[in-house]
Every structure is written in C-alpha cells, then in structure tokens.
C-alpha cells in the first residue's frame, strides 16, 4: 500500500516542479532586455564676465533738420532741385520773382546818391561858415545851423546805405538756397504760388541722415538699480570712454554697424518717470530713416562673475516659469526653476537658480524627464562676454 502511494506521488511532484519552472521562464520572458539610457548633451556652468545690456525702445531722428522758408514775399518762378535728392549747403532750391527786389535795389541806390549829394552840399556850407564865423561875417547861430544840416545829411547817407544793403539782401533772398547739407523732401509749394505774404512760408525740409540718432527711454527705477549695483561693486562699468550700442531692426536682426551712447538727458519726464538716452549710428547707405521705431541694446555694465545658459536649454511650464534640466553626479536628471536676466546673443544670463559647476542639459531635452538616469556627452561652455560689444 505504501509502495503504491509513493509511486503515485512521484509523478505529481515532478509535474509541480515542471509547472514552477515554466512559470519562472515566462516571468523572465516578460521582463525582457532593459532599454538603454537616453543620451543627452550637457554644459558645465562656469563663472565668467558677462556684459549686462539693456534693450530699450525708441525712435530714430535726424541730427539736424532745417525747414526751408521764404524770407521775402513773392511768386515762386521755379523749383531747382529734385525731390528726395541729396543737396549741399548753398545749393539753389527755389527762385522767387526777383523783379520787385531789383527795382527796390535801384531805388535804394538812387536814394543813396541823393543823400550823398546833400551831404556834400551841407559839408561845404558848414566849412565856409566856419571860416566866416571867425571873421564875424556870419553869426554863430548861422554856423551852428549849417553844422547841424551837415550832420543830418551825414546820417541820411548812413540810412540810405542801410536801405541799399536791405535791398541787396531781399534780392538775394529771392534765390532760396539750402541752409544745410542733407536729403531734401517733397516741395511744399509749386510754381506760381505766392509765398512770404505776412509770414515765412515753408517750402521744403532738409534732414541730415548720416550719422543718425536714436532716442530711447529708460525708467529711473532701472537706472537707479544699475547705479546701486555699480557702487556696490556687483557690476563694473562697461566702458570708460563710451558705451557700445546695437540697433535692433524691425525684423529682429541687428544693424551691422555698431553705435555709441552720446548722452543721457538731465531731466526726467514727469508723465512717464523715464529718462531719454541718445545713441548715434553710422548710416552711410541711408537705410535708417527718421521716425522709424527701433530697439537699442546698450551694454551698460559688466558682471565679473556671471552665469549663462544657451537659450535652447530653457523650457517653460504652463505658468511661463523658466526651467532647466540638471544632471547630478549619479547621472540622474532633475528639474530646476531659474530666474533669467538679459539675453546675450543666443544665451540667457541666469540671475538665480543655478551654481557654478552644475551640468545643464542643452540637447536631448525632449527625450528625458525629471528622475531619469542618462548618459551624458559633455559640451564645453561658451563665452558670452563678446555679446555685450
């Protein structure tokens, strides 16, 4: 009986062992090979001088603008320039009918000749009376009258000379010339127009365009914060002689020619609490036109020990908070919120949230998330000091 039971149980035990072995094989087959760790490229942060620039908005304006006006009354005979062309100082722009002014000039010459003749006559009479009064041939009163008549005639000559000079000026004003060199706009009057009647009629406008100025505004809060940081030693002056300026055009590209900051205004606009800063830019091809809206980037200071990251390393959450992915010594990824400063070229200045020596993911962000283990490819850090120039 015992032999029968032992023989019966042995196959059952073997079947149970076989079932357990097959289950173990299935579990091993379900786990399969582990996927490889994602590959990312990182940049190790290092402190280096960073140019602190401020991007401000404003408009272009011509350094010199002259309104050409009629200085005498008359009828415009001819326009002598091509609208929209470049003119030199002294170029003839308009001709006003000179006939009335020529007649006035001739009349002034005749009046001067008459005054000089009268002065000649009174001078001779005064000289004769001067001799006769010593001989008691004429009274002292008669001599005084002759002397006074001569002085009046001499004053009349001076007055006639002034009238003649005025007539010459009016005749010259009939030929309207350019007061400055620059580009002239459209004509504001046409041939046959009566100008200068009881007012100085505007005829055209000339603007100097090379170089050109850019006036931008900066809040006094930003300016004071910059000054406090400079005094505290946190920042250094960007330049001893001049502050470099970069003009950002309407398409977002940088104007190829560098400019410089000329001055900061000495008064604050009470309505906006802002101060005006004026920059100057070369404009040899006249691509920049007055009145255009522009942005100007001013390199106002240098942070001796600054941190920056490539712009492609920055991501933002639904609230717009900027974040980066950092890889620690165990090759594990973590997410870090950061505070960003200015944009310098293709990099962001980091004002808070990161420390020197940390490794920031710059490529492969879309394949990893916080908590993942990764393989890293080290990328050398980039210099950003040149972006402030």
UniProtKB/TrEMBL annotation:
The keyword Ribosomal protein does not apply. Residues 105-174 form the Multidrug resistance protein MdtA-like alpha-helical hairpin domain. Residues 64-207 form the Multidrug resistance protein MdtA-like barrel-sandwich hybrid domain. Keywords: Coiled coil, Signal, Transport. The keyword Coiled coil applies. Coiled coil: none annotated. InterPro entries: MdtA-like_b-barrel, MdtA-like_BSH, MdtA-like_C, MdtA-like_HH, RND_pump_MFP. Residues 1-28 form the signal peptide. This is Efflux RND transporter periplasmic adaptor subunit. It is found in: Cell inner membrane. Belongs to the membrane fusion protein (MFP) (TC 8.A.1) family. It is a lipid-anchor. Gene3D superfamilies: 2.40.30.170, 2.40.420.20, 2.40.50.100, Helix hairpin bin. Its main location: membrane. Residues 211-300 form the Multidrug resistance protein MdtA-like beta-barrel domain. SUPFAM superfamilies: HlyD-like secretion proteins.
